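Thread title: Can someone regenerate the structure for this chain?

I was given the following input by a collaborator and told the matching structure tokens would be attached. They weren't. Posting the sequence so someone can regenerate them.
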Amino acid sequence: MRLRAYLRRFGSRDTVGADTRAGISLGVERVPDGLAAGVLAGINPILGLNSYVMGSFVGALTTGSFIMSVQATAAIAVILRDVPAMHGADAAGAMAMLTVLSGLIMLGLGIARLGSLIRFIPSAVLIGFVNAVAVSIVMGQLDNLTGFTGRGANRITRAIDTLAGVGHFHWPSLLVAAVTIVLIVTLERTRLGALGLVVAVVAGSLLALAFPGIATLGDLTEVTRSLPDLIRPDLSATSEVIVPAISVALVALVQGAAISGAIPTPDGRYPDVSAAFRGQGISNIASGIAQGMPVGGSMSGTALTRAMGAQTALANLISGVVIVVTVLAVGPLMDRFAMPALAALLILVGVRTFRLRQIVMVWRTGITQAAVFTVTFVLTLVVPLQYAVFAGVGLSVALHIARQSNRVRVVRWVFDDPHGRPLETSPPATITPGETVVLAPYGSLFFASAHAFRRQLPTPDGPVPGAHVVIRLRGNEELGITFLTMVRGYAEELAAHGGTLILAGVDPRLGRQLRATGVADLLGPGNVFPAHARLGDSVSEALEAIEERRNRTMP
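Best answer:
Regenerated them for you:
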């Protein structure tokens, strides 16, 4: 039964024709795309092509989304460009280690069914990262575009130096790039569609033959008629690649989760995000062993797959086979691909990846989101990307904690309605003898909000015999040690002046926590009232208990 359900991902007789046509077109289109991914990462372009083979084939067999395109993405490529180990003497072994390690991280999260963790990454971080990557793609290809390589400490200064060296530009390279861009934009609007990209790169490369001095793919590597060789990951490079591996896994999983949440399977259901994690993990392990770079779910690649008419995973499976067949048939001819033509392709990808509307939306959302976006965007441009991702997430968490801690609001409930409905007013700054104050907090009660919460509690100004402060804690299943310490201190302060602290609406888990930490014993018997199904019953019980105590103490 499970085998039958699994085989449904590859369609039926009704879909095989559309999937075959789509798979052939995708396979041909992905050849220059895969080489360009390697160029973007600043590594051997063959590694990019190998990753497309393994991502397309293995991803089709393992991912939760039937038509998710698993391939090297621009964001992953830019991360790799900043990793020194990817450009050293043992770059091949280090790349294999990084890719396999990324896959193991993804696979582990998928097996643990931790797909929901992705929702904790703020959109402001992702928007800042993706748009900065778009700018980085453009800046990173200026040398291939102009034939002149600028110098600088980071990609911004290098780009500025390149643009400032206009006198050193190789103008035939610029011409080839311009013609390639025009052809891509023009041909993709014809019946060729996405295949216009292949025609444009080939045409640009043919034009380059008329001019001497234009760099070609053959200057970087040799494309042979052969399948990818297997390689053993370099375990000694683990310490160098662990941080970028985590960053790659994080970025790839976010992109894959977005696809799983946006594109349903043929039966109308949305794929399990954790299943997508597992599929991407297995694809990366396979890519690393087969001398490929890391891969992940590609939103643009998946959109193209659908636009090509793909119905099931069979399309991606066929595309992987077509890439291999293409390499075996015309591999050596790919050495003639002109680098300005591939740079033109990547620059067009970068421009189309930039989303000005998203940036405007973030800025209109508020100062916190704008700050998170700005820091992530700037850091992505000036520091290695593997650190920029963590910095953006860390800043977002810190700002969120600070924001939440200051959003705790305490109100006083005054019962002046004959129907028992409370009136919310501001809490008093002090409490007087014999007074009863019922308080209800709004917001998240956790360690960072303890100080803000305490500032809003009434303070005894001298002896306050018979005074009671009732704090309603309904909805709080537990409180941290910082908050409980604050509660203990406030209870002791009231008791020292003759007052009493009462907690009402206490959840069973919070009740156990109060007893385990000794706070319940400090408050005394009859001063902790559990929550009830009906709202207000716990507070009513507390008020009735206070009234009974007063009646017992009256002469």
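The first strand starts at residue 69 and ends at 71.
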